[in-house]
Structure formats: structure tokens, C-alpha cells
Amino acid sequence: xxxxxxxxxxxxxxxxxxxxxxxxxxxxxxxxxxxxxxxxxxxxxxxxxxxxxxxxxxxxxxxxxxxxxxxxxxxxxxxxxxxxxxxxxxxxxxxxxxxxxxxxxxxxxxxxxxxxxxxxxxxxxxxxxxxxxxxxxxxxxxxxxxxxxxxxxxxxxxxxxxxxxxxxxxxxxxxxxxxxxxxxxxxxxxxxxxxxxxxxxxxxxxxxxxxxxxxxxxxxxxxxxxxxxxxxxxxxxxxxxxxxxxxxxxxxxxxxxxxxxxxxxxxxxxxxxxxxxxxxxxxxxxxxxxxxxxxxxxxxxxxxxxxxxxxxxxxxxxxxxxxxxxxxxxxxxxxxxxxxxxxxxxxxxxxxxxxxxxxxxxxxxxxxxxxxxxxxxxxxxxxxxxxxxxxxxxxxxxxx
Length: 400
What we know:
This protein is an alpha/beta fold. Helix content is 44%, strand content 16%.
């Protein structure tokens, strides 16, 4: 006789319940067993070393684990990082214990609860008078470049008429959002003047706004371009500097009450690909995005209006981009929708040794795996193809 053991893929409570249903348990048994099947490892920073040891003992007592650095046992009150591992039942019991403990552990209990609850919370993006349920399908943002020097399609849609026609084609192919940009951010590029950027994007936005009801995004770092774009019909701002470059950008987003995408970029386009370095690429990007999102909320931006983008290709080497896509779900723990922009990027060219115009299949693979790993929106050039890819990926991961 063979017992045929095999690993199960279980990511959440619903997945656990689905597996358990095959066994035919009682409803009471289902509710008791499902949380024990969903396991999580949580990285926590700035823990008092005394609290870390209490945390470990509490988690060990209920069957979980807390991994500590060697210097945690100095008990000197220094700040350290730890990794907590356990199933959802462990976490619920741990949080009860922590609320009775000193050294900031009560606060940690609240943050853990918020983190775990965020996984099952419904996420609705309101954009241009529409409400998108991000749990039902991945959104597609179609790229409209009005620049002569963008890395992928520079000069192709440089006239307003051509750009509007291209935007309408993307809308017909299934784009949920049209992202209009008038300043190339390819590696080595310089910023253009305010007047030049306005001349490139405003006629396109005005033309699209008259001919389609698809929400339009303005891709810019300049507050005045964003203001004029919103006046012309845009419904959101896509900001590669996470609103660091111009002090007027943040108040503008607050006053207009529109969604904004905050992207991570190491350096500036001119120098961002000159030997980018990270000690821990996921932790450092997540920390940056958390700080920028916190600053936005503190200034008055509604949390429901914030999206985050780890910035594929913006100050990242090949290995950084691959790691970001592989670990994309970690950014979901920040509590905001995650946007991914892998389309035709150089990391695909490096892996496949192919030029920009031959990266469709590579983009499709990156989009599919990005969705599997937690992307809520993908920014792409090839909308028709990526709509098809995303629908299959959505079906596999259980959206809808």
C-alpha cells in the first residue's frame, strides 16, 4: 500500500476551506481547522531586544517560532529585527498574549492584527466615477507616450492626433486606464521643460476625454502638468518620484481628492541605472513606499486614493527586478494596491537577449507571474495581449 503524500498549495482561509471541504468536515471543524492550515512568516523591525525574547517565548509556548539575531540575547534594549512564523491560529493567540506585555508589544499586537486583517479586506479603487473591485480582476493600464525618446515607443505617437488614436485603440482592446506621459524616464534621460511637457500631453488628454469615458492618468513629476492634466480630464496622477520632486504636488493631490500612484526610484532617470545597489532590495523599497504613503496620508491624502509601484527598471539591476516580481506579495502588506510595470523593460531583454520590439512573450511571463504574486494593476504597452494574459492569470489565482 502507498500513502501518496503531497504538498498542498494554500494561501488563505478560503483556500484552506476549499481543501478541507474535500474531507467532508463539520462546519465547526471547518472553522477550527482552516486557520491552522494557513501559515505566515512576518518580518518585524525595531523590536526592543528584551521584547524580542518575550515575543519568542510567547510564540514558542503556543507552537510557533520567532527567529532572532545572535545579539538579541544581550537584553540591552537595542533595536533588532525578528521573523515570526506560525499559522493564523498561532497569531491570534499570540496577539492576546502581547497585549499584556511591556516594551511596545501591545502596539505590535495591533499592527499584526491590522496586517493579517488586510489580507481579507475588500479593496475598492474609485477612479473617474467608477468603482473597481481589485479582488475580482487585475486592472490594465495602457501606456500612451507622447515623447520622441521613450525607450520603447518614442516618436511613434508624437503628434496629438496619433496619440489620441492610439489611446482609443488601447481602450478598445480592453484598457481600464490610459496613462499619458510627455517626459521620457528611460535610463540616461533628462527632464524636459514645463512648456514642452504641457504641449505634448494636454492636447492628447483633451482629445481622449472627449472621445472615451475610460479614466485617464497623467504620468508626470511636475505639479503644474498634473494640475493642467486634471483640469483637462485626468482622473489620477502617476508619479515616479512618489511626490518628492515638487512640493506643490502633494497639496494638489490632496485638494483634488484623486488617486495617486507612488513609485520607488533609486536616483533619477539620468543616473538611476549607474550601478544600483541595495542591501535588502525588498525591505528597502517597502520602507521607502511606506514612508511616502505615510507622508501622503499625514498631508491629507485618503488611504483609499494611494497605490504603490516598486518601480521595475528604475534604479534596479537585473537581479533586483526579478526579486521584486518574485516577492511582489510582500508589498501588499503595506495595505495599498500594487501596480507593476514590467512591459518591454530591459531586464526582459537581458534574460532573453532580445531588443525592445521582441519582448512580448517576456512581458507576458512577467505580467502573469506578477499577478500570481499579488499585482492589482499592470502598466503595459501591448494591451490586447496582456488583457488575455491577465484574464487567464486571474482565473488561475481565483479572482472574480
